[in-house]
Specification:
The protein has 14 helices and 15 strands. The radius of gyration is 23 Å and the shape is globular. The two termini are 30 Å apart.
């Protein structure tokens, strides 16, 4: 993924300070609470440089000292080593995941923990009707957030092809969006810096920042929902290919599937494995009264064998797709974001079994894990679009925000109501 904060010009000295600040902040994220001396050893910066950065980052509300963990007590000799840690109390990032059936809004602390999450039905709206509803709703969502934190940015993610540099949703077929300048419109509605990205890439960024250590070597993320897409990261950098696409797994062929894809072919992964197909099959079989996620989850939890068979069949399809991805990319980690594999480990076992049978390169299914954030996964992914900016260029990302440690946090910044389209 291109650096979302590389566009505005910085003086060379300021840019170097921001790079050093990012190194310190990321080290504390990974290892904190941690002593300054250890930060210096891990980053290669001098002790004085680390101390300067800690002071700056503390003033901005990104770091704080943890004197209760210093280990000093009666009889201690010498200057105490006060550990520093990510400050999870003063700042927050907002996230907006725009899905097909519903939109998720969340507020997250600086370690990606969800402080507040709210799901709102899209009520079948697509195109401009959905966009207008989002722009009208966003200021109210922000105004209703509990607590007195300073919100320093908004991340917004969706499926489809998204160009993160201008913040444009290039194409999202289920939502009927084409060339939507989402970052500009959302920024106008809420008055915050906005970062926009594809949800599979954002899930990958979240895993790199807050998840499995292997993600920083290389990983593939597969998202299976109403849309099916994937993202790739190598050496901690999420890949962004030409035309703003990481790659397209939606049209991988699925043997024995006769489902018709919007591309005109049959048996594409996008339809064979999608939530839409799964929920419609459940309704057609009389397992649920309508094509609905909550009803199918309830049927599975109630032990309905027909629901179980449907979900296991999809799990096998997903396992085949992951085997192909693993053989082509050979990553250190595969992460699956799919409702039932997250809800019940037995369905992840089906995916892993099929993966092991089908993969020619990898026979070890331990590299395949389910998304560990559960119901919060997409909320964290939405925030990750903004976290990428914050952790890459912390001084610039918080340039308008300074939170004195001894005072109450600033009020939540809001702008005027969204303009009509």
């Amino acid at each position: 993924m291109s650096d979302p904060l590389s566009r505005p010009a910085l003086r060379i000295g300021d840019d170097r300070r921001d790079v050093n600040a990012a190194a310190v902040l990321r080290t504390v994220l990974d290892h904190g609470p941690i002593a300054r001396s250890r930060v210096a050893a891990l980053t290669g910066l001098s002790a004085s440089a680390v101390s300067r950065q800690v002071v700056d980052l503390g003033r901005l509300g990104l770091l704080h000292e943890r004197p209760e963990l210093s280990g000093t007590g009666a009889g201690a000799v010498g200057r105490p080593q006060l550990p520093v840690d990510i400050d999870t109390h003063r700042l927050a990032v907002a996230g907006l995941h725009i899905g097909v059936p519903y939109t998720t809004f969340a507020l997250l602390d600086l370690r990606g923990n969800v402080l507040h999450r709210q799901e709102s039905s899209n009520r079948g709206r697509t195109g401009n009707a959905l966009l207008r509803a989002l722009l009208e709703r966003l200021p109210r969502l922000l105004a209703a957030v509990p607590g007195g934190r300073t919100v320093v940015g908004l991340g917004a993610v969706s499926g489809g092809t998204v160009d993160p540099d201008p913040g444009v949703v290039v194409r999202h077929d289920p939502l009927e969006w084409r060339d939507v300048p989402l970052a500009e419109l959302l920024g106008r509605a809420c008055g915050l810096p906005v970062q926009v990205d594809n949800h599979a890439r954002a899930l990958t960024q979240a895993e790199i920042l807050f998840g499995h250590p292997a993600a920083r070597r290389s990983m593939v993320q597969l998202f299976v929902g109403h849309v099916v897409d994937a993202a790739l990261a190598v050496a901690g950098v999420v890949h962004l290919g030409p035309a703003s696409a990481t790659g397209d797994v939606a049209h991988l062929p699925v043997p024995d599937s006769d489902a018709l894809c919007h591309c005109g072919r049959v048996g594409c992964l996008a339809v064979a494995a999608s939530d839409t197909t799964l929920f419609e099959a459940a309704a057609a079989a009389g397992i649920t009264a309508r094509a609905d996620r909550a009803e199918l989850i309830a049927a599975v939890r109630a032990g309905d064998p027909r629901a179980d068979r449907l979900v296991r069949r999809r799990a096998a399809i997903v396992g085949r797709a992951l085997a192909l991805l693993a053989d082509v990319v050979n990553p250190d980690l595969l992460v699956l974001t799919e409702t039932f594999a997250v809800l019940d480990p037995s369905y992840l076992d089906v995916v892993r079994t099929e993966f092991t049978l089908r993969s020619h390169l990898r026979r070890d299914a331990d590299l395949l894990v389910a998304q560990r954030r559960g119901a919060d996964a997409l909320a964290v992914a939405a925030g990750a679009a903004a976290f990428g900016a914050l952790y890459a260029r912390p001084l610039q990302a918080t340039a308008a925000t300074a939170v004195p440690a001894a005072t109450a946090p600033a009020a939540l910044p809001l702008a005027a109501e969204a303009r009509p389209l």
